[in-house]
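Hi everyone, sorry if this is the wrong subforum. Our group has a chain we'd like a structural model of before ordering constructs, and none of us has done structure prediction before. Sequence below.
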Amino acid sequence: MTPGEPGSAREPRPAQEPRATEDPRASRTQARLREALLDECARHPLHEVSVAALVRRAGVGRATFYVHYPDLEALAVDACADVVREAVEALHAWRGRPDPVRAPDALPEFFAGLAPHAALYRALLSPGGGGPLGRVLHRDLRAYSLRERELAGAADAPLVASAVAATFAGVLADWLHGLLDGTPREIADQAWQLLVALHRSR
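Answer:
Right subforum, don't worry. Here is the predicted structure as tokens:
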């Protein structure tokens, strides 16, 4: 995201590449496991979900599960990977000169869309932005921000990219854990203002 650079034009981004697998059967099996995990976590906290219950719901064998994932946490992060993609896209869903106060509509929509699986996200994203999902979010958001700032020739690209990633991951996690108050629109606007300020500080 480079909202601090006036006159930038945002072109539509291509859809994310699908998960790369050599075998379509493996892709289908992983999709079934991800769906089963989300179904189980809609009924139970992640720490109460067992591999046995999961594979029964997915209709696969226990050994098949371990072919694809080392443990339930790895599957859970994979099942939640779309939230990372959606976060990155929401932060870059603007064109022309960005509003420094009001976030693009995709950002509050992103926050509002977290509700159905909020408990699972909280299990994987600890306060402050840590945890396995937080690490993935930080990595992907930093990489995108760094690439954009380097292409724009902006100063201190690595520093600002790290700050942007850490700030957004921290705000998102703390809001999910109830440490920050606000509606999806309110928290989106507040996070957006912080990120704009970061970009304009260098």
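For your construct planning: Residues 4-21 have pLDDT under 50 and may be disordered. The radius of gyration is 18 Å.
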